[in-house]
Amino acid sequence: MNGTELFYTDEGKGPPLLLVHGWGCDSHDWNWQLAHFGQRHRVLAVDLRGHGRSQVTEYGYTPAGFAADLAVLVRQRACGPVVAIGHSLGGVIVNVLAAEHPRLVRGVIGLDPAYGESDAERLTSAALLRALRVAPGRVLAASAFAQADDDGTPQHLRIWHRRRALGMPHQPFIQSFASLYEGPDAIAPRAGSALLLARRRCPFLSVYMARRRDCAEWENGLRRHPADRVVCLDTGHWPHQQRPELLNTMMDEWMASLEAPITAK
Fold first, then answer.
1. CB 230 within 8 A of CB 131
2. What are phi and psi of 136, to 5 degrees?
3. Under a CB-based contact definition with an 8 Å cutoff, are residues 132 and 123 in contact?
4. For 65-127, what is the HEC assignment?
5. Parallel, antiparallel, or unpaired for β 82-87 and 16-20?
6. Residue 6 φ/ψ, nearest 5 degrees
7. What DSSP string describes the chain?
8. Please, which residues bridge with residue 207 across strands?
9. What are phi and psi of 229, to 5 degrees?
């Protein structure tokens, strides 16, 4: 999109969903959701530029750049407005999409989204970014991915996450991560996140892993719509893979609430 070739699948019929993976990942991340949601929804799953089977470019690896790609895709496929579901970096991107293109998004679901970071998280991420810029940066990133798992993460998921990080092209890997933390418009730190989410007008569901409970409590204070919901689960960074049945049911119920009439209390 925007002159960049993106790999995507567009399957099923019904209310449209857009699935957006996280940093260093690809749309295979949603294998636990594709069959489930495809029974009742039109599901658009995309590899972000520089990730998976999509084209590697020299630029565009910012939340705004990724969101612009997705806006073109949604318009070309004539499938909006969508419920946009994003994991990690994807959770940032779907919120940028909702802020910049509100007519294309009727709701957002963020799974352990990469925003609202505390000062301690921000310092850890800054150290990782410095390490990523020297060889063998991707080895350190793979280790960071492992730390994002928890004791309940199956070994086959740990191996998959690590190997995929090691196989990412260098430029998009570094630039995608750096764009969250560098510059006056950095979104990952809490101050920058607040500016972004203040522009979010659609309802949201945000699901955090247990160790980010403080982030969940922070975003819970930003609820404005009756359907807004923030949940904290005992899981690792990939809740949609580690606890797919629970997450799929939770997302089903939340999306159903968007269709229900709002009654006064």
1. no
2. -95, 85
3. no
4. HHHHHHHHHHHHHCCCCEEEEEECHHHHHHHHHHHHCHHHEEEEEEECCCCCECHHHHHHHHH
5. parallel
6. -110, 140
7. -TT----EEEE--SSEEEEE--TT--GGGGHHHHHHHHTTSEEEEEPPTTSTTSPP-SS--SHHHHHHHHHHHHHHHT--SEEEEEETHHHHHHHHHHHH-GGGEEEEEEES-S-SB-HHHHHHHHHHHHHHTSSSHHHHHHHHHHHHS-TTS-HHHHHHHHHHHHTS-HHHHHHHHHTTTSSTT--SBHHHHHHHHTT--S-EEEEEEGGGHHHHHHHHTT--STT-EEEEESS-S-HHHHSHHHHHHHHHHHHHHHHSPP---
8. 111, 231
9. -150, 140
Distances 241 to 52, 92, 156 between C-alpha atoms, Å = 18, 19, 11
167's tokens: 């196989």
Which pair of tokens denotes residue 174? 């570094």
The predicted-structure confidence for 142-172, as pLDDT tens digits, reads as follows 777 777 888 889 999 998 988 888 888 888 9
CA distance 19 to 35: 13
Q: What is the Cβ-side half-sphere exposure of residue 254, based on CA atoms within 13 angstroms?
A: 26
- Between CA 86 and CA 84 the distance in angstroms is 6
pLDDT tens readout for residues 14-71? 999 999 999 999 999 999 999 999 999 999 999 999 999 999 999 999 999 999 999 9
Q: Are 113 and 84 in contact (CB under 8 A)?
A: no
Question: What does DSSP say about strands 105-111 and 82-87: parallel, antiparallel, or unpaired?
Answer: parallel
Tens of pLDDT, residues 38-50: 999 999 999 999 9
Asked if 141 contacts 170 with a C-beta cutoff of 8 angstroms, the reply is no
